[in-house]
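Discussion board: Methods & Data

I've been asked by a reviewer to show the raw model output for two of the constructs in my manuscript, not just the figures. I'm not sure how much to include, so I'm pasting the format here to get opinions. Each protein appears as its amino acid sequence followed by a line of discrete structure tokens. Is this the kind of thing reviewers expect to see in a supplement, or should I convert it first? Here is construct A:
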Amino acid sequence: MQVHSPSAARPWVRSLLSAAALVVFGASAQAQTILRWGDVVGGSHPQVQMIDRVAADVKARTAGRVEIQSFANGQLGSSRDMIEAVANGSQQLVTEGGANFGAWIPSISVIEAPYIWRDPQHLIKAMNGPLLASYNEQLVKARGMRILGAVYYGTRHVSTTSKPIKTIADMQGFKLRVPENDVFRAMAESWGAKPTPMNFNELYLALKQGVVDGQENPLPTIKAGKFAEVQKYIVLTGHIMTPRLVVVNDAAWQKIAPADRKAVEEALKAGMNWADEQIQAQEKSLLDEFKAAGVTIIQPDVDAFRKATLAIVPPKFEAKWGKGTYESIANLK
């Protein structure tokens, strides 16, 4: 009987064996869980970079069993679109401002109330403690979404296309783009402005074409959105410090093995800490960058903005937020 060595095997047999090995390897390496994570802000923003960092960390910690896919710049839709998609499970993760979840937790919009936070540290500490746990419990029950953490989005300021804003009187009739929620609209109205709700991914063109007179966002978002290209003034109103929530579809979350869920939580905590540091660092350096690009920075009468806002907004929303809630959060240590 003639014996054939392995090297003498027919080429088609070797090819078939190689293909079979690739199929087995591919099956073993394929992620067991894929989480689509969306954000409306652009890819250069620290909170989008955070997604990429968390994705790489999760892949390493879970040996590829959990894969996070990043979709920045509103690729998956508007804020409302993505929140609804996470609620129904067609998208698994979203980073969004807390007030946008007010349809299910009416009181949560207080965390984006004007002048409620003293500084970023006040916000970060409060929003990753018992306060967040309370909102999380309500959101899971109301809509099947779970809050995994909160990040500091930055301190919001007004920017304008052509009008210098120095006093609150300068805001009379000013068409100000605001996010699509009641608190921001009420704040703009307290200044005498005309609030114009609009999706974030429509904003650059609206500013360029003069559909609105200006907008309000943190400095890192103004940079990521390239708004300085079409804005002449940045007005340091410092009116809102926004906490953004990382929210997951709870049914998808529960399907992940406990050990892998823990790995995601650890990676997310590290990523959020990094993003918080990046945002605060950018806030310190960006004014000089904007000045160098030809943007005029204005220091307005902030006390006048604050007084006008606090006279109207907290009383208007007291029934929704709960009596004394604004004051209790503002006074948290």
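Construct B, same format:
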Amino acid sequence: MDHILVIEDDRQLCQMIVDYLTAAGFRVEVVHDAGTGLEAALAREHALLVMATPPPGVQRGFDLLRHLRARCTTPVVLLTSRNEEVDRILGLEMGADDCLSKPFNPRELLARIHAILRRVRGVSGQQQQPALPPALRAGDIYLEPAMRIVRKGAVPLDLTAAEFALLEILVRRMGQVVRREELADHVLGRKLSESDRCIDTHVSRLRKKLGRNGSRERIKTIRNIGYLYVLPQEDDQFAASKSTCCFRSGTDDAADAE
């Protein structure tokens, strides 16, 4: 039985979440303050955390997420207090795997939890153990999907579950454009809404952690379409062929503003 930790000071909302997730087969632990929540998250193993941001003007919820991400990679669904894009982007930039604005339908929360857990475990509802996926390499970047290990040269990289899933699909399709819709399905397990910048924010965080490949970004924005992980040995060829390619890379995307 999967163990989920809920960190939320609204006791009525907590009870609704507990009732719904328990009925869905999860074991739910609840704490109502940030300090106790951090201790619980680090002291015990959880499949996923559901964490609320504080009311307007209070930063404790974001501080909790920042401290948590510095010490563990447990997937996080962030419940934002307001339906404002800036809150969702800030939460994603600090390492949340997905964000959901209050008020929300508990069925949507459950769907997002299932999607994240399927992605983290690399399964699609099948119980049989699949063959271990082979290791991947892109220049000095090394991924071992079975162990969820990423290294840049000899240095381990600390990626969230969403960032790992994003890097894995881009490296597997290295040299090819991957559409944002496909990335959302693979990384988030859901479709993007019209103004949803979740994938772009995850790309921005991943770029910072990977660093540049010489003077170039490793992940190129293909404007209005998606992203491409550039073949390390073909950077110059890619640049020379842009004028004849039907896609055009741009820097006006939200993820390139970083």
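Answer (T.O., handling editor elsewhere):
This is acceptable in a supplement if you add a one-line summary per construct. For B, something like: Residues 3-121 form a domain with the Rossmann fold fold (CATH 3.40.50.2300).
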